[in-house]
Write a structure and sequence with these properties.
The complex is a heterodimer of chains A (about 325) and B (about 250).
Chain A: E1 5-13, E2 19-28, E3 33-37, H1 44-52, E4 61-64, E5 67-68, H2 73-78, E6 80-83, H3 95-105, H4 112-121, H5 137-149, E7 155-159, H6 167-182, E8 186-191, H7 194-200, E9 203-208, E10 211-217, H8 218-225, E11 227-234, E12 250-253, E13 258-264, H9 268-281, E14 286-293, H10 296-305, H11 309-314
Parallel strand pairs in A: 3-8, 3-9, 6-7, 7-8
Antiparallel strand pairs in A: 1-2, 1-4, 4-5, 9-10, 11-13, 11-14, 12-13
Helix pairs in contact in A: 3-5
Chain B: H1 3-19, H2 21-43, H3 55-58, H4 60-86, H5 89-94, H6 99-128, H7 136-160, H8 164-180, H9 193-199, H10 203-216, H11 223-247
Helix pairs in contact in B: 1-6, 2-4, 2-6, 4-6, 4-7, 4-8, 4-10, 6-7, 7-10, 7-11, 10-11
The chains are: A alpha/beta (about 325), B mainly alpha (about 250).
Bound molecules: adenosine-5'-diphosphate and magnesium ion.
The site of magnesium ion has 5 residues of chain A, from helix 1.
Amino acid sequence: MQPDISVKHLNKIYEGGFQALKDVNLEIYPGEIFALLGPNGAGKTTLISIICGIVNPGDGEVKAAGYDIRKQYRKARGSIGLVPQELNTDSFETVWDAVSFTRGLFGKPPKPSHIEKVLKDLSLWDKRNNRIMSLSGGMKRRVMIAKALSHEPRILFLDEPTAGVDVELRRDMWEMVRKLRENGTTIILTTHYIEEAEEMADRIGVIRQGQIILVEEKDRLMSKLGKKELRLQLQQKLDQVPGELTLEPIELSNDGWELVYTFDSQQQQAGVARLLRTLGDLEIEYRDLQTRESSLEDIFVGLVNEQSPQERSTE
Amino acid sequence: MNLYGVKAIYQFEMARMRRTLMQSVLSPVISTCLYFVVFGSAIGSRMGDIDSISYGAYIIPGLVMLSLLMQSISNASFGIYMPKFSGTIYEVLSAPVSYIEIVLGYVGAATTKAVILGLIILATARLFVDYSILHPFWMFSFLVLTAVTFSLFGFIIGIWADGFEKLQIVPMMIVTPLVFLGGTFYSIDMLPEIWQTISLFNPVVYLISGFRWAFYGVSDVHVGISVGMTLVFLTACLTIVWWIFKTGYRLRS
Ligand SMILES: Nc1ncnc2c1ncn2[C@@H]1O[C@H](COP(=O)(O)OP(=O)(O)O)[C@@H](O)[C@H]1O
Ligand SMILES: [Mg+2]
């Protein structure tokens, strides 16, 4: 399948010499929801801005919907809708005019029925004749989303779409993303809310200091890097981990009232069964047990805190 | 060609102008009326004819030019400065529009409005002075050519400016003096020789001279030179605009 977004060996050095992207390679496929995770200043906005035509690319090749963003910029840009990170809106225009303006700008003939649908989906219909400056911040963000969808793009970029928005809008936005996916729209989002990526993304890319350090399907990422924890509340207090279990990654906690067993998700079946059997053999009884899966957030924090290879080698 | 894109920008700009109708039409009309009252009637009645044209009629082309230049520059510079200032420029930069289309939209709208305003001022002048237009076609052509050229110039200023002061400094500090010293209120022949020579470096002299020729058939410099100089300035502006978009100067980092 031809990717909807294809980035090859992309570099970006800003005026002043700061290198914001280093040899970025990335492919995103039609209809998928891709989450780009990374700490502040990692280069997420830079990457998106280059693909969308707002920032000049450095060397490397970038294609959107199969079109080169430089040589075939009309077709490339025409297939993209962008909701940028910053809340930049017109002021004096009405919601309807502003959203219709974007559709025209993207070279599409007027289609009031589509604008109406977008505004209704985003709960902006009642406000269509209001000037944008009279709207609240959340409503303004909805207007920006409506603008991005006004020209029926097949690829949608959402740059930190839910940073600082209210719960209601976040819920609406998730709902909207799901609906768009059903129509086959490719969605790329950056976010700080890892739960968002966890909830919605099919694949996840992690970017740090201008480098993509990992791209993986979410489920596989979870199982590959995810750790599980089994906690057993004991009937009787233990003074130490029984000798038969010392080879296992097991610890005693809660003053000896609890056994904590940590295991990789892959080996879960075998490990847990063996542990429980051994406990049975030792006649150690437990009142209760829970397992906990590490969240994407734990994984992410682990990843970005990891030293980069250069840093490691200089030590 | 993304005609819908050009139309979207053009209409957006025209809507902005309609919203500010009062300040953008009324204020130049009022100040032009004041010029006519003071220079045309009060002082003009004591002035002799210049090139056998009554003083009140003589200053009309220059006054129309003054408003035309100011309006072209301020409309076009504001039009592109505002989205840069508010951040909404991202939309234009991410849209499938070529730079020619962007310029057509912004400069086209600024030109339209400046020409309309020029015609309104011309009509207003009729209330004060009886004048005739010898070459209406050339008069209109000059009006449009000048409006296009200075709208382009304004567009460049709007991209260059990174603050409101800079946006206003060029019309205030450069264009106003050039227009006043460009033969609006006098014929260049009336100046001492040295100032006549210096005046020839003022591009506005050629605009006003050519424009006045279209009205009355008299001019300080030959009308061909006027047209030529305007075209030179137009080409210079076009070249700068081309360079701006090629390099992304102050638009794309
Ligand atoms: N126009 C610019 N000029 C110079 N440096 C920039 C510019 N824009 C961003 N940067 C720098 O590039 C890095 C990446 O920024 P950005 O892409 O916005 O990161 P993110 O979106 O991941 O937070 C940051 O260190 C930022 O300071
Ligand atoms: Mg960002």
